[in-house]
Specification:
Blueprint: E1 2-8, H1 13-21, E2 30-36, H2 49-54, E3 57-66, H3 71-82, E4 90-96
Antiparallel strand pairs: 1-3, 1-4, 2-3
Helix pairs in contact: 1-3
C-alpha cells in the first residue's frame, strides 16, 4: 500500500473528485483545508511580521491510501486536473504505508 498526499488549489478539487469517481475501485480520499506558502524564486520576502504571518494561500490537501498498482494512475489524474503551469499549482508526494486496516473489519 502507498499513501498519496497532494496539496492543490481549492478550485481544482471538483475536477479531481469527478475524475476519481470514474475510476473503478477508487479507494476514497480524505480532504482537508490547508494554508501554506511555497518557494517562489524572485519573490521578495515579506517586510514586516504582520505580512509574514498572513502571507499564506488557501489550499486543499488530499490524502489517499491505495494499492501500489493504482499510484501512477491516481497521481496522473491529480496532475492532469491541477496543472496550470503557474506557480502555486501544488505538490504531490507518495509514501509507503506499513499497515492499513479498516476500522469496520
Amino acid at each position: 500500500m502507498k499513501e498519496i498526499k497532494a496539496v492543490i488549489q481549492p478550485q481544482r478539487l471538483a475536477r479531481v473528485r469527478e475524475a476519481f469517481r470514474r475510476i473503478p475501485d477508487f479507494p476514497g480520499m480524505t480532504v482537508s483545508r490547508a494554508e501554506g506558502s511555497g518557494y517562489h524564486p524572485g519573490k521578495p520576502a515579506p517586510s514586516d511580521v504582520k505580512t509574514e504571518l498572513t502571507d499564506y494561500s488557501a489550499r486543499v490537501r488530499l490524502e489517499i491510501v491505495c494499492p501500489e498498482a493504482m499510484v501512477e494512475q491516481l497521481v496522473a489524474v491529480i496532475r492532469e486536473h491541477c496543472h496550470t503551469g503557474r506557480p502555486g499549482d501544488g505538490v504531490i508526494w507518495v509514501t509507503p504505508v506499513e499497515y492499513f486496516r479498516r476500522i469496520r473489519e
